[in-house]
Amino acid sequence: MQLGRWLAGFDYGHHRFRYSFGTPEPIRSRVNLGVLSEEKVNIIVHGHEPTLSEMLAVASTDEELLAYARSKGATGINVGGICCTANEALMRHGLPIVANFLQQELAIMTGSVEMMVVDVQCVMPSLANVAKCFHTELVSTSHIAETMGAEQITFDAKTGLQVRRDMIRQAIDNFERRDKSRVHIPHESMEVVAGFSNEAISHMLAGNSAIPGVRSTMPSSMVVSARGGYCGLHESQDPVRQRAREVG
Asked: 0.85 cut: is pTM over it?
């Protein structure tokens, strides 16, 4: 019965997101702390609410906001993600993944993050204290999981886009408070290809791809031998060394 409930919820959520935001397609992006920018306004969206990241992604491309960012000395707006929200923003908009669950404090400690927007879960209670040591503004958006020490701006789908524009403008204003002498962004980042929906995988196995070079890396035998796939999902955990359980 529990498995049936889980599968029903998963199927409902999968189709709801697809109908609301579109079916993901293979898309190139980058991951790791090195995706943060010294020249741009850095905004991180962190949590599990896909509507929130969708609105921020759309608002970040607003020409008026981009012009406002340039007027404050930045070259643009850089929106990245942490945790499951990062995956939603990555596979539909190509936004970079800044960090995983265990790295969320480290992202702030680069000294380059103007705003971190959090929602319902996987938010470390320590984030507010870490943010106080830097210029980062921490914004909580969930009405059922308000983060202590953060500014509360509850997300409402009816006014979501305008509120996200206001939040980005607030982050841009915060760019001037960044202490460049305290900015330390790691150089490490790597390219990633994401967005492999069922439709995209079927399309690729038929010999097609919207991403140059992806199809050529797949052996020709895969087209006739593929019978399924496996995906293991988990959050990073403190007692286990990062990536120690990964195979492949």
From this structure: no
Strand intervals (E) in 96-189: 97-99, 113-118, 137-140, 151-152
Q: What does the alpha-carbon distance between residue 107 and residue 98 come to, in Å, rounded to a whole number?
A: 7
Can you list the domains of the chain with their CATH numbers?
21-182 (3.40.50.2030)
Q: Strand (E) positions, 101-176?
A: 113-118, 137-140, 151-152
Q: What is the DSSP string of 180-237?
A: GGG-------EEEEE---HHHHHHHHTT--SSTTTGGGS-TTHHHH------------
In 3D space, the residue among 69, 47, 23, 90 whose CA is nearest the CA of residue 165 turns out to be 69
Rounded to the nearest 5°, which phi and psi values hold at 187? Answer: -80, -15
| Higher pLDDT, residue 5 or 77 | 77
Confidence grade of residue 216 (pLDDT, cut at 50, 70, 90): very low
Q: Which residue has the tokens 């609301």?
A: 20
Beta strand 27-31 pairing with 190-194: antiparallel
- Ranking 119-133, 164-178, 194-208 by mean pLDDT, the lowest is 194-208
In 3D space, the residue among 24, 21, 23, 26 whose CA is nearest the CA of residue 191 turns out to be 26
Q: CA–CA separation, 70 vs 76, rounded Å? A: 6
**246 pLDDT tier (thresholds 50, 70, 90):** low
Per-residue CA distances from 136 to 15, 42, 49, 183, 231 (Å): 36, 10, 21, 12, 35
Least confident of 56-70, 82-96, 159-173, 226-240: 226-240
Which tokens in the block code for residue 91?
């596979």
d(CA 83, CA 31): 12
